[in-house]
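ARCHIVE ENTRY
Sequence with per-residue tokens
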Amino acid sequence: MNAFPRLKAYFHIAIALIVIGYPMYLWALWDPMDYGFTALRFGGDFFAYYEAAVLALRGYVTLVMDFAEFRLTALEYAPGAHPFYEWVMSPGLLLFLLPLASLPFMLAYGLVAGVGVAALVWCCRGEYRSFDTLDFVCLAPATLLCVLYGQPVLFVAALLCLTLRRLEVKPVLAGLMLGLSVVEPVVFVFGVLALLASRNMIALSAAVCSSAGVVFLSTVLFGAESWYLYWDNAVRIQFAALLSAPSDVLAMSLSVSGALVAANLNAESVMLVQALVTLLCAFATLWLFWKPRDPEARNLCFAVLAVLASPFAQVWDLVVVVPLLYYYAIKHEVFAPSDFDSSILEPICFTMLYLLPFAAIALTSHFIPVAPLVLLVALLAVLPRLLQPVSDQRDTSNRDAGLAA
């Protein structure tokens, strides 16, 4: 059964907004020579990663970890191309970026973008539905922004999707892939919490071994001082950058802290509220995995919680939700329910989640930050399926299958 006939209406509207409406909106409301919307924007963020890899290959790892000096060095090579260079790269991430330093910039950028999108599509191969998969995944606003900005979070999204999908059937493989996501600390920490709550010691052991291998190799290559500098500076530098960020950068934030900074709250209030939100998300993750629940609903909620918990989440980070939303929509026929009298609330909520990266930029720039609210609404939309016993869901699925037959 094609699970996306109702999606076509939403999807065509979304594509019209993405391909036609949104560029017109930018052209009308922003100076085309302003930050973020010139030709220099393509791969602008990737330039920071590429420059870090080049410097690390030449032996200047301490310069990369000294984020203030690294920003000045990068701006010398690309003046005006990227005024916001406070991307914090751990030695673990630098380990994976290092091979790119041997390639020309455009080739490295194209390789990361192309392989990243291919990995995202490949992790959805279990429910491949002709061009529906390519449309839904490749044209997702979060995916497009990752390609435009040159963000390697595409690989983290693929790793997370494969980890959650293989957790019960191949725990060793799932754990190994989760360990590789140590380059994204929030995703890795929440993944470890999920494994602890599910009492999956095999996957947890594999994740610990895999992450330890990444840390060990990066320490051998870059020295223990690189990790010391990273942990000494990372959170402080990122919070300082967020608190002093201009409005066009805050418009791309998905986090609660970004919304509060945009609302002009003081630094102490921002840190306190974000800490409480992160703590609540951690407890929600433990609750999600404590007992068996609908796997697609659980996995989707986990990805949304990981984004909501991060104080530095940006619009492209929502790509971690895209493949899991695809699987959820396939299983539960969100956009093509068997009963066409069913509520339309759920499709609307997930369409909002799907379009959130672009909507967040527009609404935060001119009205109020809405991203945390949309993420919360998406969690509430999934909650009824999480509360339903797994046995009842299986009975319902079998009955629907019988009726379809």
